Amino acid sequence: MRIVTVGAGPCGLYASRLLSGLGHEVTILEEHPSVGRPVQCAGLVGTPVVERFGREAVINTIDSALIRLGTRSLELHRPGVAHVLDRTRFDASFASGLDIATSSHVTGVRAAGDGTYRVDAAGTVYEADLVIGADGPRSVVRKSMGFSAEVRQYTACQERIVQDVPDEHRVLVEVCRPFFSWAIPEGGGILRVGTFGRQRDLDAFKEHAGLSGGVIERTVACVPVGKAQLVRGGAVLVGDAAAQTKPLSGGGIYYGMCAAEFLASAVEAEDLSLYPAAWQRAFGREVSFGLAARRIYERMSPHDLSRVFDVLCENKDRIEDEADFDRHSSLARLFIGNPRLFAVLGRYLFSMFS
Ligand SMILES: Cc1cc2nc3c(=O)[nH]c(=O)nc-3n(C[C@H](O)[C@H](O)[C@H](O)COP(=O)(O)OP(=O)(O)OC[C@H]3O[C@@H](n4cnc5c(N)ncnc54)[C@H](O)[C@@H]3O)c2cc1C
To answer: How far apart are CA 219 and CA 197, in angstroms?
Structure first.
């Protein structure tokens, strides 16, 4: 089968690698001149990512998180709970041996009417039996092929700064809506600091956290949260193009890479409908939980947020033992039956479903 993948991010590359291994003729079109750049990611992933997709791009390991709400803080410990990736190296590790046309900006995809597709990129038209839209949050494939989607884009900015920190294996997370701000040590005295919002929000976080080191890199990008149709005729979406992210954190590497595997298996079985079915089975409930929790989180009053934080602090040990980095509904399980939490969240739940 002739497959054209739009986008050489980790999800497009990994799906293409698997499909090429199955004997398909895969061409990847990437708008940038090289794979893995620019980096628009904090690169923090849970252990399943490194166990399943390789640890060669790991540059630091995280053992604890200091979570702050205003002047209060909660420190959680679990050795090796997360890993910091060199995203350029991570992406490149899936690229070797693949046919990648760089500097190829795709402007549209259309059905040719005979079951094949035409992909327009930088003056060249590519023919395909299957088109994979792995072109990130603002997917051209999603728009031009008319995929249905309910996706909200959140702007995030991040800097790499030169900064000595007391603990190079601890992340700082400051609760601030719509998500949080972060400071993630790469090791070697470099910190990735970011927030969901504008540069002024990032500057405010840095000032509050006492982070004044010199900036060596800046990025502004989008994180998609929501749900999208995954298959439309002979076109499919994967990764951020399909909003395959964790709604409470915006992290998308694990979900998107797993989705790439589901997609490859469906192509191998010659039944694309197996792809959304497998995605739904693995992550459907998790995403629905995350979207509902996100709606509550965004609406909660500061006073109620503070009461939830109290409950988190009181349950520190259970969170350390039971919370799952990639499955945030594990937190809900922790609090089922907690009357104080129910007293806070009950009316938000009631207003959502009434
Ligand atoms: C600031 C920030 C921090 C993040 N931190 C984390 C984190 O710590 N952990 C985590 O798991 N996730 C994180 N994410 C999310 C993570 O980066 C994405 O989920 C992940 O990159 C998705 O991979 P992808 O392959 O689907 O898309 P992308 O990595 O976005 O790759 C898409 C590719 O398509 C190319 N492309 C786009 N449009 C076109 C076009 N028209 N023609 C040709 N090529 C095109 C792009 O150049 C790009 O190479 C973060 C995101 C942001 C913005």
So the answer is: 12
Instruction: Assign domain 37-84+152-225 one CATH number from 3.30.70, 3.30.9, 3.30.420, 3.30.1150.
Output: 3.30.9
Nearest to 238 by CA among 225, 266, 257: 257
pTM: 0.97
As for ligand 1, residues whose beta carbon falls within 6 Å of it are: 6-12, 29-32, 40-45, 105-106, 134-136, 140, 156, 158, 194, 221, 223, 239-241, 245, 250-254, 256
Q: Domain 1-35+95-148+229-298 has what CATH class? A: alpha beta
Helix (H/G/I), strand (E/B), else coil: 197:
coil
pLDDT digits (tens, 9 = 90+) for 290-323: 999 999 999 999 999 999 999 999 999 999 999 9
- Give residue-wise pLDDT tens across range 236-254: 999 999 999 999 999 999 9
Candidate of 223, 263, 326 to mutate for ligand 1, largest count of ligand atoms within 8 Å of Cβ: 223
User: What's the gap in Å between 40 CA and the centre of ligand 1?
Assistant: 7
Phi-psi region of 62 (alpha: psi -120 to 50; beta: other; left: phi over 0): beta
